[in-house]
Design a protein that fits this description.
The chain has about 250 residues and is an all-alpha fold. It has one domain: Up-down Bundle (Ferritin). Helix content is about 65%, strand content about 0%. It is built from eleven helices and no strands. Helix 2 runs antiparallel to helix 6 (about 120-150). The protein is globular, with a radius of gyration of 18 Å. It starts with a helix and ends in a 6-residue tail after the last helix.
């Protein structure tokens, strides 16, 4: 098995991705385009928050420094977060959120399918539960892409524009760092370069059915695995961590 530090960082990445994406989705609460979708997006947010809690709780156990999942979520600085840049992008309009959801949820599906076979039994157990949620998230985003892409000229163009804008943030999800290469050798995590082709097929199939053109391979944003983020993460943390920062020893 890989070192405790390697496993800890990997768990932080899994937890941070779910935490930040969940926070972004929660911003739709009371703002959805229709009541049903308002509830759906709120439930997607809760799924992500629950997943974040599971991964961060395990991370705290691996770290062994007496920290809790809440400590890891609310008492780290921006440079200590390892979430993908795509998760911290602004909520934007509905088509923007659906585009992010399509890319992230399809990634989650194939990642958790692979992690169900992880040699780390705790990760495998969390993945087995998360895969059910991720499949629904992917189905939900795919259905909306079809509605928007095959709807009016305005909704089609809006979706195409959002796909084009966000595409540069998708390559980072499949970046193989030295950490990833080491964990692959121990069977803890999958080879992301293999997953990328599967992801491209799944996303491409949805976009083709939606009448949307798949963007070409161009410049890709990276940096999150070195703690380098967009300007948006700092604003998220200032809101998300306010209570814990103001009252660090508060309990319910």
């Amino acid at each position: 098995m890989g070192s405790k530090e390697q496993l800890f960082k990997y768990l932080l990445r899994l937890g941070d991705n779910a935490l930040i994406q969940g926070h972004r989705l929660s911003e739709w609460c009371s703002r959805g385009p229709i009541l049903e979708e308002d509830i759906a997006l709120s439930n997607l947010a809760l799924d992500n928050i629950g997943r974040a809690q599971a991964f961060l709780q395990y991370a705290s156990e691996v770290e062994g420094n007496g920290h809790t999942a809440d400590d890891l979520a609310y008492r780290r600085s921006e440079r200590q977060y390892l979430n993908f840049l795509i998760t911290e992008l602004p909520t934007g309009n509905f088509a923007y959120t659906i585009t992010k959801q399509l890319f992230i949820a399809q990634y989650d599906v194939i990642l958790f399918e692979a992690l169900c076979k992880s040699t780390d039994t705790t990760i495998a157990g969390i993945a087995a539960k998360a895969i059910k949620e991720a499949r629904y998230h992917a189905s939900h985003a795919s259905d909306w892409c079809l509605r928007l892409g095959m709807g009016t000229a305005l909704s089609h163009d809006l979706l195409q524009n959002e796909i084009n804008d966000i595409w540069m943030f998708t390559g980072e999800m499949f970046e193989m760092t030295e950490l990833d290469k080491d964990l692959v050798q121990f069977g803890i995590s999958p080879d992301l370069t293999i997953l990328q082709n599967i992801w491209l097929d799944k996303v491409g199939s949805v976009l083709i059915k939606s009448g949307i053109q798949l963007p070409g391979q161009g410049y890709q944003q990276t940096g999150s695995q070195q703690g380098i983020h967009t300007e948006h993460l700092g604003h998220i943390l200032s809101e998300m961590q306010y209570l814990q920062r103001a009252y660090p020893d508060a309990t319910w």
